[in-house]
From TrEMBL:
Keywords: Membrane, Transmembrane, Transmembrane helix
Membrane-crossing residue ranges in chain numbering: 12-32
Protein's recorded name: Uncharacterized protein
Length: 66
């Protein structure tokens, strides 16, 4: 058995690439399946806010009258 990645042969490198690829696909598949099975109670909904009366923001303490 060869314990160095530098002196490993071609099949050892291929095995490492295949194991990494399978692990990556497994993690991505788990993440997608966990997201698709999420509860609907945790979803966010957008709330509509209507514009109010226009105001002017200044840095002084005096109020602006229009």
């Amino acid at each position: 058995m060869n314990h160095s990645i530098y002196s490993a042969d071609r099949t050892t490198h291929l095995k490492i690439v295949v194991v990494a690829l399978v692990a990556g696909i497994a993690v991505a598949g788990f993440g997608i399946s966990a997201r698709l099975n999420a509860e609907t109670g945790y979803t966010q909904t957008a709330k509509v806010m209507k514009a109010g009366k226009p105001i002017a923001v200044t840095s002084s303490e005096a109020s602006l009258v229009r």
